[in-house]
Amino acid sequence: MKQQKILKSYKIFLIIAIILVIFSAIFVFLSRKTIIFSSFKKQEFPTYKAESLNPKQQKIINILKKEYQKQPKGTKYSQGVKEPWCADFVSWVMKEAGLPFSNPHSGSWRIPGVYTLQEYFESTNQWHDYGDYQPKTGDIVIYKDNSMFSGHTNFVLKNSNGYLTTIGGNEMKKIRIQKFKFDDSIGIKGFGELK
Questions:
Q1: Which domain holds residue 16?
Q2: Which of 22, 46, 96, 123 is packed most tightly, with the most Cβ within 10 A?
Q3: Following DSSP, what letter does each residue of 89-153 receive, concatenated?
Q4: Are residues 102 and 43 in the same domain?
């Protein structure tokens, strides 16, 4: 009977120890996450000093701010096509700013895919691999397929103090602002430079 109590106590201790290890691992994982705010709460649009932005950046920021406030459906940016619309959003904003892309496959202003968007930037000498470039307001981020964003694209709003603030379409089916530590953990493939 005494051995059964000891065995039972040992099992309880072992279960508690395993639970503590699991919770510790979860805590360490979450504390290392680099997303600062990706909550469901709508984030404030950053403010800028007008003189800190060139005319192209000002146009893009004004359009992004209006669209962020309106939160229209993704089909607005994809010419009515129901599809993942992050690259459509980027294409539409650039068109509205008077800086339309030219799809290397169709010639259209709309580039609906992240791979083709990267191909466009490479063909126009606007592409910068991650690590070779410090992105600026209005630049476009492209993420790796295995990143936390999984083959995604969005705009740089700010790059300061080691953090990148972005805005993109089709982020949880909305236009969202994200802020994260600008390091390898995010899975950035590269940037399309606003020239």
A1: 1-32
A2: 96
A3: HHHHHHHHTT-----TTT--S----HHHHHHHHHHTT-EEETTS----TT-EEEE-TTSTTSS-E
A4: yes
